[in-house]
């Protein structure tokens, strides 16, 4: 088998949460271009733009709207994915949220919403995926979306920072327990990306300039910058990579 063949995802099915825009859309497109069919999950009623990109890549797309602040959608997501495609091989836990407030003023509601979506749901989605992979006797891939703040404290985002630090260590735990079943659990830590979450920062000339000054690559990242990392971690090329968080940050953490 040639090295390029090991990056191919032909015949694979990927569940991608938060697929409708931003990083989730970029990851979905990359996985589809590598050969995977996509079962998308999002808060909106549909994801027409993502659907068009997947179908342009020649792959199939199915979608289920779900609010991942609770665990109720987890079983329906997997049931519908199996109904649509018959199997699941890849899970990308991309859906997330952020609340900004001084830590002295941060509320319980701001804390709980972020932790529920960014960490609690990620665990139970991953648990459901692992159980499905074991039932299939197939192994499988789990890709969690962390953040460079899994390594740094940040400011004014206490629940986000806590959730992303939790993602990094939870991914290690998953690898420790599930590698024996040929399940690879890894994470991607994006840097400053040009998405809706960073719109306010990019619109602030001083903050944007200060951020760009520290990024060795000299630019904000974009969703397509995550596609290569996602394809690698979803493919047989990463079969001996377990419990690792890969930074895609233009060099931010190197400074």
Secondary structure topology:
Elements: E1 13-17, H1 22-33, E2 37-42, H2 48-56, E3 61-65, H3 74-85, E4 90-93, H4 108-136, E5 140-145, H5 158-178, E6 183-190, H6 199-203, H7 205-214, H8 227-234, E7 245-248
Parallel strand pairs: 1-2, 1-4, 2-3, 4-5, 5-6, 6-7
Helix pairs in contact: 1-8, 4-5
Number of helices: 8
Give the integer mean of the pLDDT values. Answer: 97
Main CATH class: Alpha Beta
Q: Give the helix/strand class.
A: alpha/beta
Shape: globular
Task: Tell me roughly what share of residues is in helical segments.
Answer: 40-55%
User: Could you name the ranges where pLDDT drops below 50 across 5 or more consecutive residues?
Assistant: none
Q: Total strand count, please?
A: 7
Q: Can you tell me about this structure?
A:
By secondary structure, the protein is of the alpha/beta class. It has one domain: Rossmann fold, CATH 3.40.50. The chain has 8 helices and 7 strands; from the N terminus they run βαβαβαβαβαβαααβ. The chain has a 7-stranded parallel beta sheet, with helices on both faces. α1 packs across α8 and α4 packs parallel to α5. The protein is globular and about 50 Å long. The mean pLDDT is 97.
């Amino acid at each position: 088998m040639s090295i390029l063949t090991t990056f191919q995802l032909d015949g694979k099915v990927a569940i991608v949460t938060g697929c409708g825009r931003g990083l989730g859309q970029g990851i979905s497109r990359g996985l589809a271009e590598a050969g995977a069919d996509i079962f998308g999950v999002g808060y909106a009623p549909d994801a027409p733009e993502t659907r068009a990109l997947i179908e342009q890549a020649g792959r199939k797309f199915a979608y289920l709207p779900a609010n991942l602040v609770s665990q109720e959608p987890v079983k329906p997501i997997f049931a519908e994915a199996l109904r649509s495609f018959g199997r699941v091989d890849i899970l990308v836990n991309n859906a997330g949220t952020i609340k900004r407030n001084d830590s002295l003023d941060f509320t319980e509601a701001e804390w709980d919403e972020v932790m529920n979506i960014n960490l609690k749901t990620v665990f139970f989605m991953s648990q459901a995926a692992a159980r499905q992979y074991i039932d299939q006797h197939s192994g499988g891939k789990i890709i969690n979306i962390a953040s460079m703040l899994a390594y740094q404290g940040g400011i004014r985002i206490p629940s986000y920072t806590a959730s992303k630090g939790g993602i990094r260590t939870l991914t290690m735990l998953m690898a420790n327990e599930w590698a024996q079943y040929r399940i690879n659990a890894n994470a991607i830590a994006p840097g400053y990306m040009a998405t809706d979450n960073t719109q306010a920062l990019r619109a602030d000339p001083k903050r944007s300039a200060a951020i760009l000054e520290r990024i060795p690559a000299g630019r904000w990242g974009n969703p397509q910058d995550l596609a290569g990392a996602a394809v690698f971690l979803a493919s047989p090329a990463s079969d001996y990579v377990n419990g690792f968080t890969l930074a895609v940050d233009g060099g931010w953490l190197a400074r």
